[in-house]
Amino acid sequence: MAAKKTTPLNRRQFLRNSALLSGGVVLLPSLLTGCTEEGSLPEYTGSFGFHEGVASFDPTATSVLLWTRYTPADNEAAEAQIRWEIAETSSFTPLTASGTATATAAADYTVRADAAGLTANKTYYYRFRNEQTKAESVVGQTRTLPTAGQVASIKLAVVSCANYQAGLFNVYGAVAESEADVVVHLGDYIYEYGQGQYGTTSATARLNRGHQPPTEILSLTDYRTRYRQYRGDQQLQRAHQLKPFVCIWDDHELTNDAYLDGAQNHQPEEGSFAQRKQIAQQVWHEYLPARTSAPDKIYRSFDFGGIAHLHLLDTRLAGRDQQLSLSDYFGSGGSFDATRFGAAWLNPNRSLLGAEQRTWLAAALAGSTARWQVLGSQVLMGKMYIPAELLPLVAQLASGGATAALLAQYTALATQLIALKQRLQQNDPTLTAAERARVTTVLPYNLDAWDGYPAEREKVYAAARGKKLISLAGDTHNAWYNDLTDATGRKAGAEFACSSVSSPGFEAFFGGNAAAVQGFAQSNQLLIDDLHYLDASQRGYVLAEFTAAAATAQWRYVASLEQINTQTTTGKTVTES
């Protein structure tokens, strides 16, 4: 009997014949979907690709973290293999390094790769590709940090507080076009509020900037959706594509006015605060990767060629005791209990950093030989002490009660106090003790900042004694240049605090009254001893440049948040030596 001739199976026949059946359901249908001819790959369907762009983070002299997010095709496997490549030229010939990372649902399909073995102080290009679907990302550009002696200056773009609902991210577009080597993001990268809540303006709907999801974010899905919305912004994508970022979180990556174990904007009916905190920190790391020892410890240092040593801090979640509230110390008749407040405020055990972080920072400051020790802090470090009798009016303004009557009352009182302060500075012999007390009896107005934790601030100043200290800060949505002085009046350093990317500043309290905003800024500069510059109405960033001789800050502002325009004007330039 002649042997039956066997016909070799082609690829399509093999897949059909070997598909496993279970209960009548084919388990491998995706392998057959879209096959149009012998030996071809499937046709992938849906909006797959790298829609959130690319980014790089935490550069060192020899490595950088590369990031992207991949949206799978409808008929693609649950896990996607993503190839990354990095090279010294945009043609990617030759490759410096490459590898493969897996995009999974467990990390919201975000991908990070640590590109190592790089050369110091060099520009690199990188990209991502899915070999299966042939989807490719845009080409990103990044840079490694210099080693000692390689550069004469370092330029940092300092940003904070980007509320999607408050307007276009023109500031990010300006940063992308700037000469900055690295972007330092000091927090409030996203905001947790729902549509119509904080940040909403008359232009929000027209600009299609309403938050997604439309409610306040609480769940893992909520936080991821909000980050994807922000990372869909083209100007933010451009900044990430062209500049390496180093980031820390502030409160709105979790919820407003957070501290170690609670927050102003977290209520019992919203579930476990600890769980919400864990979710927020997880998603932060998914979208803003950092070289950290643990998910809840983001404080770390970067050495910029021996010129500047940047110490990024966590003044929000690592060790912060709950903020004090001045309202708790006013009696029913409106009198302020200064004795009780002072005991709480000056308590040496109150902490902003926590013991572990404070010990780390002291060791980092002591061990650094860089010319400049730079603190990247979420909140203002400089003293914002205002005359105590002005404090109730400032509190009313900050609560949104800027009526014409209140503005008139504030202006009249501030004018009186400024006149007294000028007489004090001129050593006017006719100034009475009571008049002197009106301008020398001062209190901090913002207890969410370092001002609420003065004992710990003194410990940091002591650890930095003998060093050239610069504080970079965000959080307030306004621009500040302050002296840093200790309890004895000794100058410990200076502070360059940035305005916001889009979140409203003091101008929001004054209903667009430009004259009132200007008057408020000027009165603060005259009445607050350590304050030299305040811009209370513009959105922008700080370009901080460090050399062996000087630290220079430029406060740069965009013109509007309602139409795309990345041109900037410089409102102030200062130099510390």
Give a quick summary of the entry:
The chain has helices at residues 11-18, 170-177, 220-231, 234-242, 273-287, 338-345, 355-367, 391-398, 404-425, 433-440, 454-463, 514-527; strands at residues 21-22, 25-26, 54-57, 64-69, 80-87, 95-103, 110-115, 123-130, 140-143, 153-159, 182-185, 244-247, 258-259, 262-263, 300-304, 308-312, 372-377, 385-387, 442-444, 468-473, 479-485, 491-497, 531-535, 540-547, 551-558, 568-576.
Features:
nine-stranded mixed β-sheet, single chain, disordered N terminus
Describe the 3D structure.
The protein is globular, with a radius of gyration of 27 Å. The protein is 23% helix and 24% strand. α2 (170-177) runs parallel beside α4 (234-242). It has helices at 11-18, 170-177, 220-231, 234-242, 273-287, 338-345, 355-367, 391-398, 404-425, 433-440, 454-463, 514-527, and strands spanning 21-22, 25-26, 54-57, 64-69, 80-87, 95-103, 110-115, 123-130, 140-143, 153-159, 182-185, 244-247, 258-259, 262-263, 300-304, 308-312, 372-377, 385-387, 442-444, 468-473, 479-485, 491-497, 531-535, 540-547, 551-558, 568-576. The chain is an alpha+beta fold and 577 residues long. 44% of the residues are buried. The protein has a domain at 54-292: Sandwich (Immunoglobulin-like), CATH 2.60.40. It contains twelve helices and 26 strands. The protein has a nine-stranded mixed sheet. β21 and β22 (491-497) form a beta hairpin.
